[in-house]
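Run: sequence + magnesium ion -> complex structure.
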Amino acid sequence: MSVKPKSKKALVVKNVTKAFHDKTKILPTWLRRDSQKTKFFAVNNVSFSVKESEIFGILGPNGCGKSTLIRMISTLLLPDKGEIRVFGFDVIKEPEKVKEFINRVSVEASFFKRLSANENLLYASRIYGLNPKKAKQKFTQILKELGFPLNKLNQPMENFSRGLQQKVSIARGFLTDPVMILLDEPTTGLDPKSKLDVQRFIKKIHREQGITILLTSHDMEEVDRLCHRIAIMDKGKIIALGTSQELKKLVNNEDVYVLNTSDNQKAMHILKQIRTIKKLRLDDNRISFCTKDLDSVMNILTTMLRKKKIRLRSFSQVKPTLEDVFLKLTGKPIIDKECELEKEVEF
Ligand SMILES: Nc1ncnc2c1ncn2[C@@H]1O[C@H](COP(=O)(O)OP(=O)(O)OP(=O)(O)O)[C@@H](O)[C@H]1O
Ligand SMILES: [Mg+2]
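>> structure
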């Protein structure tokens, strides 16, 4: 790479806003000429930064603005307001320098569908100015690691499933050893095996090359498994940001425990006497409670259960998931189905 970074921060996004017009919005004739009335914010005053070598996740439902944000970072779309810097370079004023650092992999990747994966990747290599022989070795190796059946390398891309096309797209994204990669929903629509192949590859390439990764997804487990820090997005805004552990603390600051005994009514009676227990509940043969002092609770509980000849059948700690976090923050689940963005229209 010919350009040296101007900053140690891989990415800085400051108060970035992007509005579009909702052409499907039906308005009274007297309002139709006023473009402000159909305006909505796809990305609304978003700020965050990504450290070098970090895997940063943007988690949010369909239509929350993830791809719009990725397109602005990758210089494909201009922000209306705010500032984006990639290794210190401004995406608006210095797009060519920014492009030296990043590559983007997205679901809408374009290929010559009638040409084979091999031809498409060789074509990309030529555009990137790579040695064709070395490039072929490299993309063959990446495809192998991604679990791509190499006997299909010379088949036309139009015969490929979405999963296979996505793998070719990922191989293309990594051809030039980017310093930072933007992975826009890299595993959406993939079968479970392909999903794992791609996730394993992302981890491996990060481990070996220390590449900075910005990844969007609406798969909470994926983000939890791969990312060092996560920004949760909803309706164009970042509504929470932190490590998975920090985000999960937003759901519950106390540790939650569940247990089942041979006589839950009597066990409830015992637990009610313990002062450090809070939020004690019995539903469907399951007792749950919160405490910050598990040791003393367990001492009292086990002694009392033994005394009353009640058997402890199961005991475990309930760990919140990112799904719980999203639900708590927005009051709705992240769903895979098309979900409408609540558009902000000012009258
Ligand atoms: N060029 C555009 N013109 C008008 N509206 C747009 C445009 N691009 C995106 N939108 C709208 O902006 C909102 C955010 O879209 P975006 O693609 O960024 O969401 P997303 O979070 O990536 O969703 P998904 O998970 O479905 O990929 C959506 O309502 C979308 O319809
Ligand atoms: Mg998207």
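>> summary
The first strand starts at residue 9 and ends at 21. The mean pLDDT is 90.
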